[in-house]
């Protein structure tokens, strides 16, 4: 059988996109995530060893100068187990689409809710298997047990000046949590390389457990006059405790946060936050330092700050028109934006070539919970207008909305109006994907990442040859 047919056969067996119905692969009955992962890792390690042994010298892509000078777009150069972004289907977490995850993953409120638990998604990202409700609830309990912050981190957060951006505070707190790193301690004591993943797992579980408290302290200090975040309720899930510590008691907002924290968790390995975490981790920096580096990337306006830019633009549209606006006038506004050399925030994506499924599930939530909200109606109106304008302009490879076109509107509706803070929410969510990938990086024993670089004269000489 040819290499192509062998690979195609494996893809057909493993990728749910080719199956007529969702095939749910549940984990074993154990509710201990680490034990289940310990069973899965040797199988995957063997699979990768065999893959490299059989096909290690095969070419899987080509690199052009345009790719190199154009942000490495399209270069196949990373192995990321947790998710794959298909240009036409959108993100798939371990082979499952977002609608499939919403359907098959255990829900909040003891299974009675509509949105999947981030705990359940984390289990799926780590093991590749769909957890039971009991397994997802066991992760909730573990995170609740690990949530306490060391005093020095709390003191530091409480003493930051109000002028320090929420993301700078978030990154600094994560860096300071490095004092708790079990990986760093084990490495200094001579831990075996084969056990690295276990120590990274422990740090990841600890960090994810603590991030909502860190994020809530930042929010309360900046926007709620330093009022207390309260304590973790051991009977409640991760998202519920997070929204409660933020000061929101609306059950719909908690459901929104379960969805938000799930859909923003991972977007394969090449985005800035995921790649940076992977890169810094490849130097065997501990998970806290690695993830803090990823969060510094997320803080950039071309990554995590994008939803804030969308909201600023939408607010300006509303202010300029002073209420509802006709489709024709809105179309003229969009054209004027483009002709002035600006982009339409929230539209287009480096990889996707369709409406982002993360946008779509937020839209469905809004249609159910806030159909008459003026800002949502504006977003819906733009959804009808912008793609046609971008297609007519002819410059956009993807004229469809991405996740950022919607998320800020939902947060505003429920009273979280502090746009500077939105990227912190994104960061709490992104921990699920970045850290589950980091566990697998160490399970595979991936080496330090060090691609070869040339200067422009060297490239010129190379292509002339």
Fold topology:
Blueprint lengths: L2 H12 L18 H23 L9 H5 L13 E4 L3 E4 L2 E2 H7 L13 H10 L5 H13 L5 H9 L6 H11 L5 H7 L7 H28 L14 H9 L4 H13 L8 H11 L4 H12 L7 H16 L5 H13 L17 H13 L4 H20 L10 H10 L8 H22 L12 H9 L1
Proportion in β-strands: under 5%
CATH architecture of the largest domain: Orthogonal Bundle
- Report Rg: 22 Å
**Annotated CATH homologous superfamily of the largest domain:** Citrate Synthase, domain 1
Secondary structure class reads: mainly alpha
How much helicity do the residues have? 55-70%
The overall pLDDT average reads: 91
- Return the string of H and E elements: HHHEEEHHHHHHHHHHHHHHHHHH
Number of domains: 2
Largest sheet: 3 strands, antiparallel
Largest sheet, order of strands side by side?
A: 1-2-3
What name does the CATH topology of the largest domain carry?
Citrate Synthase, domain 1
Low-pLDDT stretches: 1-20
Number of strands: 3
Q: Give the CATH level 1 class of the largest domain.
A: Mainly Alpha
Distance between the termini: 36 Å
Shape: globular
Helix count, DSSP H or I runs of 4 or more residues: 21
């Amino acid at each position: 059988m040819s290499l192509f047919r062998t690979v195609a056969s494996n893809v057909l067996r493993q990728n749910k996109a080719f199956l007529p119905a969702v095939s749910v692969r549940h984990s074993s009955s154990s509710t201990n995530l680490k034990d289940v992962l310990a069973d899965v890792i040797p199988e995957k390690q063997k699979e990768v060893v065999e893959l490299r042994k059989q096909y290690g010298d095969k070419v899987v892509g080509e690199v052009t100068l345009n790719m190199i000078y154009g942000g490495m777009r399209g270069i196949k150069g990373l192995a990321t187990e947790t998710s794959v972004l298909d240009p036409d289907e959108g993100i798939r977490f371990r082979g499952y689409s977002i609608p499939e995850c919403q359907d098959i993953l255990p829900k909040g409120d003891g299974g009675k809710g509509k949105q999947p638990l981030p705990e359940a998604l984390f289990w799926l990202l780590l093991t590749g298997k769909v957890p039971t409700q009991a397994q997802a609830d066991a992760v909730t309990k573990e995170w609740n047990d690990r949530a306490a912050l060391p005093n020095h981190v709390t003191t530091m957060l409480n003493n930051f000046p109000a002028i320090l951006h929420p993301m700078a505070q978030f990154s600094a707190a994560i860096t300071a949590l490095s004092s708790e790193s079990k990986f760093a301690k084990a490495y200094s004591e001579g831990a075996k390389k084969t056990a690295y993943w276990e120590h990274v797992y422990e740090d990841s579980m600890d960090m994810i457990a603590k991030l909502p408290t860190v994020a809530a302290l930042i929010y309360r200090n900046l926007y709620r006059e330093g009022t207390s975040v309260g304590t973790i309720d051991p009977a409640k899930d991760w998202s519920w405790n997070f929204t409660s510590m933020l000061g929101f008691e609306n059950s719909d907002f908690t459901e929104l946060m379960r969805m938000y924290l799930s859909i923003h968790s991972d977007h394969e390995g090449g985005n800035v936050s995921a790649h940076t975490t992977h890169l810094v981790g490849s130097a065997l920096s501990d998970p806290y330092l690695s993830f803090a580096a990823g969060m510094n990337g997320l803080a950039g306006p071309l990554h995590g700050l994008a939803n804030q830019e969308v909201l600023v633009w939408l607010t300006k549209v509303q202010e300029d028109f002073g209420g509802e606006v006709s489709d024709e006038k809105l179309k003229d506004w969009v054209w004027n934006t483009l002709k002035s050399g600006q982009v339409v925030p929230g539209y287009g994506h480096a990889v996707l070539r369709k409406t982002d499924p993360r946008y779509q599930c937020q839209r469905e939530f809004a249609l159910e919970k806030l159909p008459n909200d003026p800002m949502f109606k504006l977003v819906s109106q733009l959804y009808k207008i912008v793609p046609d304008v971008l297609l007519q302009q002819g410059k956009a490879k993807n004229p469809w909305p991405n996740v950022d076109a919607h998320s800020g509107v939902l947060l505003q509706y429920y009273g979280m109006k502090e746009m500077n803070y939105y990227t912190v929410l994104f960061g709490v969510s992104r921990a699920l994907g970045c850290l589950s990938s980091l566990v697998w990086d160490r399970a595979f024993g991936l080496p330090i990442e060090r691609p070869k670089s040339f200067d422009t004269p060297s490239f010129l000489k190379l292509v002339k040859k």
